[in-house]
Amino acid sequence: MAVTIKDVARHSYAERVGCEAGDTLLSINGNEIVDVLDYRFYQLNSNLELKIRDIHGTVHTVKVRKPEYEELGLEFETYLMDKERSCRNKCVFCFIDQLPPGLRETLYFKDDDSRLSFLFGNYVTLTNLTEHEIQRIIKMHISPINVSVHTTNPELRVKMMGNRFAGESLSIMKRLSDHGIALNTQIVCCPGLNDGDELRRTLKDLYDLNVNLIGVVPVGLTKYREKLFKLTPFTREKAAETVDILTEFGEMCLRTRGKRIAYAADELYIKAGYEIPEPSFYGDFEAIENGIGLIAMLREDLRAELEWREPDDSIVRSVSVACGTSAAPYLRELMDEVQAQYPRVKITVYPIVNRFFGEQINVSGLIVGGDLIEQLKGKPLGDVLLISSAMLRFENDLFLDDVHIDDVKKKLHINVIPINNDGKMLLDAILGEEGENE
Q1: Same domain, yes or no, for 141 and 257?
Q2: What global pTM score does this model have?
Q3: In sequence order, which residues have a C-beta less than 8 Å from that of residue 393 and are 6 or more positions away?
Q4: Tens of pLDDT along 30-61?
């Protein structure tokens, strides 16, 4: 499969040897270029021989000499150079299957693309991998790979993922691990299915595979589960049992490997009624994208910012913060610390009940624009409303219900600032020092 060059970066090595938009890249050093992984891997060498077919159909070869690892300078129509691969599984816990109808089309696409795992940290199940792709990962030493495991019991994995090959694909992890590929793994924990003793089995098996990371998150259940597999939400007792299992396993890993490797999502601690661990518990916060250590990281960041700043009673400001019901008590505690240092800054934390997906969904990242408008209309919001940037898609414009952030601003008559999980950014926005884009 050849790929068409969309553009050539100015003053790049590719431009110097005459590559043009519309040309087709056939191979680099005799290696066929199928997608972005091929291109990124083979372009790293210092001596390159590119086989090109121009827009007239003429095939010719050009040679490039450049410093090792420097970019060649070719750009393509899509980042992957071909279509993103969709998931072939029918997981009983799949969140996409629990979405209401009528949302934007991209929200219903289920990706299971190993290339996105390496490039962007997406989690994949390995059920889509061909033998050629496995060999390529090993040859190129593509690492880390993020794997949605859920269970290492082959029969149970088949049941949970609705794919008769789901159990067989577990063997791929051993092959990758044997070749030094780091594996970051994820377990969506479902009470009555892969918790308890099944979770203990999975943790042991993953330990034996020498995986780099295990993140355990609770199953998310929306109100749109008609005709779907019957799942049970986490109770306080089940959440506590799960955290206890992970804590015991983590302590063993600390003793034997010097690293905890397995972590429970913040939501499990909250559901269990447990204290969120201190920042040191999470090491380098490797599992932060799974909602693991978010609260601890924000605490650490914000308190570090407050520590070096002098108390100031000259700043007069009123700020509101909207968040999920699970995070609200922790944010309120942090906002009290800010107000103690800035006594004339008033901060109101508004927990938003998730009526769009159902009240069992209580994390900030799944709050939609409609719920913000409905629950905050007429409330005293002060000078600015702060929300988590996780509520919005990458472009920071649309909520999951397709409400635009500008619509929220207009309906609530206030500026809305999306904030990353970053203590400095949050404090600056509270104090009005930067980030207020009207």
Answers
A1: yes
A2: 0.83
A3: none
A4: 888 877 778 888 888 889 999 999 888 899 99
Counting every residue written for the chain, the total comes to 438
Assess whether 262 and 157 both reside in one domain.
yes
Compute the Cα dihedral for 423, 260, 278, 248 and give only its sign: positive
Hey, what are 219's tokens? 């199953």
Amino acid identity at 303 = R
DSSP 61-110: EEEEE--TT----EEESSSSSSPPPBP----TT-SGGGSPTTS-GGGG--
Domain count, the chain: 3
Pairing of strands 145-148, 74-76: unpaired
Host domain of residue 14: 3-76
90 pLDDT tier (thresholds 50, 70, 90): confident
Confidence of residue 436 (pLDDT cuts 50, 70, 90): very low
Which residues, other chains included, contact 300 with Cβ-Cβ below 8 Å and sequence gap of 6+?
A: 279, 423
**CA atoms within a 13 Å half-sphere pointing along the CA-CB vector of 70:** 12
- Cα separation, 231 vs 197, in Å, equals 18
